[in-house]
Amino acid sequence: MQGAPDSPAVYCVATQDELVSLDNAVATEGGTARAYMDDVAVVATPQTGFMAITEYIRNIKTTAGVRIEMVEVYAPWLDARTLETSPQHRLEAERACDVEFKMGSRPAPSSLSAGTPNSCEEWR
User: Fold this and answer.
1) Is residue 112 part of a domain?
2) Looking at residue 40, which CATH number applies to its domain?
3) Is the residue at 118 inside a domain?
4) Euclidean distance between CA atoms 25 and 48, whole angstroms
C-alpha cells in the first residue's frame, strides 16, 4: 500500500479512532494530541503522555497493522536532561510497547511553521 496515491487517506482513516483516544487520554490533564498523517504531536505530562503514547502504539498495530519503530521526545519548555536523568516513565513505556523513545534535542524536522514544511529546503 505504501506509495499508492490513496495511502495517505487510508492511513488517516485507519488511525483516526486511535488518535482520538490518544487525545482524550492526555486531555485528562490538559494535554492534547494532533497529527498530520503519520506525524503525531503530543503535549502532555511525562506520567500521562508516555503511557498514552504506548497505548496508541499498541492500538494502531492491532487495529491498522501499523508498526511504530521509534518515538522522538522533545521537551523545549522543560530541561530535557531532567527526563534523561529520571527516565522511569520513558523506560516503562519502552518496555510496554517494545519501541525506543529517543530524547530529541531540537524540534522535529518535519514540523510545520506558518504552513510550510521545515524539512523542505525549497520552502525556506
Assistant:
1) no
2) 3.30.420
3) no
4) 8
Digit-coded pLDDT (tens) for 26-57: 999 899 999 998 889 998 888 888 899 999 99
Q: What is the tens place of the pLDDT at every residue in 68-106?
A: 888 888 766 555 555 555 578 888 888 999 998 887 765
Cell of 119: 524539512
Would you state the pLDDT for residue 7?
86
The 3-state secondary structure of 56-117, one letter per residue: HHHHHHHHHCCCCCEEEECCCCCCHHHHHHCCHHHHHHHHHHCCEEEECCCCCCCCEECCEE
Look at residue 78 and tell me if it is in a domain: yes
Distance of CA 13 to the CA centre of its chain: 17
pTM: 0.74
- As beta bridge partners, residue 36 has 39
18 domain-assigned: yes
